[in-house]
Fold:
Amino acid sequence: MVCLRLGAHQILAMNVPTHAAVHETVQLGKRRIGARVAGLLNAILRKVAKRDLPGWLDTLSANMTHSKREAFINHHPSWIADSYRRALPEAQVTQALIANNQPPVTTLVVRPGIGDLSELTDAGCTPVRHSPYGAYYKGNPAQLDAVSCGRAAVQDEGSQLAALLLTHPEAPSGPWLDLCSGPGGKSALLAGLAPDGLVAAELAVHRARLVAQNLTGFPHAQTVVADGRHPAWPEASFARVLADVPCTGLGALRRRPEARWRKSQADLVGLTDLQRQLLNTAIWSAKPGGVIAYVTCSPHPDETHAVVDWALKAHSVSRPRQSRRRGGADP
Structure:
């Protein structure tokens, strides 16, 4: 099956000439499996090559329901397409599925306090639409001095905005907390904006090292190895808390296209339980009048609205009024 998948992908999706794809796949099969599979591989792949990819998709999805066909022709498991349908207006579902198959644009972020956006624009970057710290770049980011020296890094605009929204509502003074900080991109953005310092907590030691590396240059930022479900700090310690929780990642499939086939709907049960525990810690950690940002990389309602609605009922918390306190982007 692996050989057939490789060969079919070359023929249907990579514009490799049929004779070349068939020959190389057959040779691979001979080496890895044995000469007995040569004829089978050759016959199946030559049949595959009789139609292009749209033709096969139309044929194989002819008897599917509309929703299943939409997921199939856009290369998504049905449950992911259905979760998009629960979260988005119907007119946007197809657009979202198609967008997940497009190459991502490299987006950079300057780190407040140690970098400046002008350094990126002077190097040929184009400012993004919403984040005042972001810019698009078409080349290799590692070649930019700002990136190689740690004054800027790769970070999607959506990730930037999620962190910046924490800074918008009014809050008491005091340090800030990034509860699930690995690998540290959002921590580094917030560290330059936190006047009283930032604590970045991460459970995994190797990810905590990455966080500490990203926070180089911010002397008032501290990295701690800690389980967000069992906080290593006193209650009501932080003015602002970012809870960027583990999730299915269904909103980041453009950058991780293989994740759609590695996740299953069964993963939601354990994840939503973990998300509630972490949000519970975030609320426990915040000072009276403090601000909490609950963030996921998923639009799935079970990971977003359901968790927030649970917190609003279980705790004495409320949604903040919208404001434009910092950052420049609308909440």
Observations:
- Residues 323-331 have pLDDT under 50 and may be disordered.
- The longest strand covers residues 286-295.
- The chain has four domains: 1-50, 60-102, 110-154, 159-314.
- Strands lie at 107-110, 126-127, 134-136, 152-154, 176-178, 198-202, 221-225, 238-244, 286-295.
